[in-house]
Design brief:
By secondary structure, the protein is α+β, with helices and mostly antiparallel strands. The protein has one domain: Pleckstrin-homology domain (PH domain)/Phosphotyrosine-binding domain (PTB) (PH-domain like, Roll), CATH 2.30.29. It has 4 helices and 10 strands, in the order H-H-H-E-E-E-E-E-E-E-E-E-E-H. The strands form 2 sheets. Strands 1, 2, 3, 4, 5, 6, 7 and 8 form an 8-stranded antiparallel beta sheet that branches. A two-stranded antiparallel ribbon has the order 9-10. Strand 6 and strand 7 form a beta hairpin. The protein is elongated, with a radius of gyration of 20 Å.
């Protein structure tokens, strides 16, 4: 057997890479399925329900932003709810399986100077919000599918319908 490995190192490397990719594909598909009704998704929805007034009709999403600094990174996590006129932003803190939240804030559509919601289409949107002086004050990423990958991607949340409704509202804000 070791003779085979010595004579065919590229084949062995290819088999190893195929096994590695297969493992991550299976993990991704499992996490994607689990994320449709995950406890994490329910917790984010509970947090929004606790923060947003009952009479408001909103589209809920989970969003985040990660900045990389060489070998380290910093991430911010949010529960968000968007209406025709307001964006409710709830900063989240995640410690293992516990999802807590900090003081929320509301961004009114008419207080924005610019909304950059990225390119239309696709399953990911990078969003930047600017004040009336064109100074960026919030950036975040919204995805249809969020799967646990590493410490910067700690939650399994699938939000396909919510993603499209949220992006539609943001695009409406952008065009006004």
């Amino acid at each position: 057997m070791f003779d085979f490995m010595d004579k065919h190192p590229m084949l062995m490397l290819g088999l190893f890479l195929a096994a590695f990719l297969l493992y991550f594909l299976i993990k991704y598909l499992f996490d994607k399925h689990k994320g449709k009704n995950s406890e994490e998704r329910r917790r984010v929805l509970e947090i929004l329900k606790a923060v947003i007034p009952v009479e408001e009709s909103y589209v809920p999403v989970y969003a985040y932003w990660t900045e990389h600094y060489g070998k380290s990174s910093k991430s911010w996590y949010y529960a968000m709810g968007i209406t025709d006129e307001k964006l409710y932003v709830v900063p989240l803190h995640i410690a293992g399986k516990v999802i807590g939240y900090d003081k929320s804030f509301v961004i009114h559509k008419n207080s924005l100077g610019k909304v950059d919601s990225g390119k239309a289409g696709g399953s990911v949107r990078y969003v930047k919000l600017y004040d009336q002086n064109q100074k960026e004050f919030l950036k975040f990423e919204v995805n249809e599918v969020n799967t646990k990958m590493d410490k910067t991607m700690p939650l399994n949340i699938v939000q396909v319908e919510e993603f499209h409704a949220f992006v539609k509202k943001l695009d409406e804000w952008k065009s006004q």
